[in-house]
Amino acid sequence: MEQASRSAGTVRPGGRTARVRAAVLEATQDELVEHGFHGLTMDQVAARAGVGKTTVYRRWGSPAGLVTDLMTELADQSSPHADTGSIESDLRVNALAVCEAVNDGRLGATFQAMIAAATCDRQAADALRAFYLRRIEEWAGAVELAVQRGDLPRGTDAMEVIRAVSAPLYYRLVVTREPVTPEVAERSVQRALAAARAGAFIP
Predict the structure, then answer these.
(1) Is it the case that residue 58 has pLDDT exceeding 60?
(2) Residue 14's pLDDT is what?
(3) 169 to each of 12, 90, 107, 128, 132, how far by Cα in Å?
(4) Alpha-carbon distance 106 to 114, whole Å?
(5) CATH topology for the 80-197 domain
(6) What does pTM read for this prediction?
(7) Taking each helix axis from N to C terminus, what angle separates 158-171 and 87-103, rounded to the nearest 10 degrees?
(8) Cβ neighbours of residue 52 under 8 Å, at least 6 residues apart?
(9) Fewer CB near the terminus (10 Å): N or C of the chain?
């Protein structure tokens, strides 16, 4: 759930195939930010990436294939969960990173476009769900460590704690369109942590 890279265009080892994928995903993110999911076209992505249309159609198949790969790449670029030795500090790192990500001009716009698309397109919804599930599972590790240390009750549902931290932030972003600030992030951490310590996340 923490911030991914601001761009999906990082070139990794692997020669031309890796460079093509990086260019196409970079172009996909640019088009998504500028035109939204429903304005995303294979031909425009190919032109923007400087890649042949045949290559793009053969490898990704559809706009949904492009955004699925983009969300996979963003998840891959995200950092591991924090492990400060304090669950309060770990959750604060998570919340502040979400805050930074949604306020980032490029990354925040990418998430908003995907969230909007997910409300009416099943494949976009699947891609977005897979991204967030990976991040929730990763950050659940911080909660599991806290349970092992005795900082939270045994049986605490780690993934639900992470959802509880970020849910108020995304509610402001998507539903009420209010600013998502560090102060809001801090309050979300304190409320989720108080609930977790009281056993509210034990099934």
Answers:
(1) yes
(2) 60
(3) 32, 17, 15, 17, 14
(4) 12
(5) Tetracycline Repressor; domain 2 (1.10.357)
(6) 0.83
(7) 40
(8) 46
(9) C
